[in-house]
């Protein structure tokens, strides 16, 4: 029997009886006596015996050979010799004490990934024939009069902004935009930091002339 088929049969047989922490190691580079070593845990004597019987029956049904079985009397450590593969079914305390993983664990075979790949290759054509499911579309929301009234109220409460009128639009409408007044030549320019001369009024000029005449008369009289 092919070694890959044999290790798959053993793995399935142990899984059927709920074997714990199943590990399979490739020992082709370590020894020439066998190609695979399997280590699995059973929680009780009854389960270890059931695991061994499951492996024996599965291999026999597929036409494999059972070289021998040891440890069935006690059930603490049951060994099933399949020729190219040796299966160690141990209770957790015995497994932790002997640590067979350190002895044969040079190269572990990942059975979970191998089985998933094989199942995908087998189920690929069947999956392609299955019709694709259409995504369900969401049902349309019915708009009620109450919802329309709420939306209208919310829109009325929003502050309305004044529309901006551009220069081009104002000229097209006949309204010229207000321009800033330009300074003309009649407008006096006041230099920064200078003094501004204010013209005297007519009353002030007449009073100043009368005062000057009085002063001149008084000087004449004084001189005489």
Automatic annotation (TrEMBL):
This is Ribosomal silencing factor RsfS. The keyword ATP-binding does not apply. SUPFAM superfamilies: Nucleotidyltransferase (SSF81301). Functions as a ribosomal silencing factor. Interacts with ribosomal protein uL14 (rplN), blocking formation of intersubunit bridge B8. Prevents association of the 30S and 50S ribosomal subunits and the formation of functional ribosomes, thus repressing translation. Residues 115-224 are annotated as: Disordered. It is found in: Cytoplasm. Interacts with ribosomal protein uL14 (rplN). The gene is rsfS. NCBIfam families: rsfS_iojap_ybeB. Residues 196-210 have a biased composition (Low complexity). It comes from the Bacteria. Belongs to the Iojap/RsfS family. GO terms for molecular function: ribosomal large subunit binding. GO terms for cellular component: cytoplasm. InterPro entries: Iojap/RsfS/C7orf30, NT_sf. It holds the Pfam family RsfS. One of its GO terms (biological process) is cytosolic ribosome assembly.
């Amino acid at each position: 029997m092919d070694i890959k088929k044999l290790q798959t049969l053993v793995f399935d047989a142990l899984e059927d009886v709920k074997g714990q922490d199943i590990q399979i190691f490739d020992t082709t580079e370590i020894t020439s006596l066998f190609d695979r070593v399997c280590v699995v845990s059973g929680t009780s004597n009854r389960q270890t015996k059931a695991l061994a019987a499951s492996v024996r029956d599965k291999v026999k049904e597929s036409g494999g050979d059972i070289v021998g079985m040891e440890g069935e009397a006690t059930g603490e450590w049951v060994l099933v010799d399949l020729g190219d593969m040796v299966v160690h079914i141990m209770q957790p305390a015995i497994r932790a004490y002997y640590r067979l993983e350190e002895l044969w664990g040079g190269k572990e075979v990942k059975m979970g990934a191998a089985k998933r790949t094989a199942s995908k290759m087998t189920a690929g054509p069947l999956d392609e024939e299955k019709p694709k499911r259409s995504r369900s579309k969401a049902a349309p929301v019915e708009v009620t009069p109450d919802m329309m009234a709420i939306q209208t109220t919310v829109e009325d409460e929003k502050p309305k902004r004044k529309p901006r009128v551009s220069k081009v639009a104002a000229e097209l409408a006949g309204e010229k935009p207000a321009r800033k007044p330009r300074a003309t030549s009649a407008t006096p320019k006041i230099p920064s930091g200078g003094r501004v001369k204010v013209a005297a009024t007519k009353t002030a000029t007449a009073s100043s002339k009368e005062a000057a005449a009085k002063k001149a008369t008084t000087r004449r009289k004084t001189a005489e």
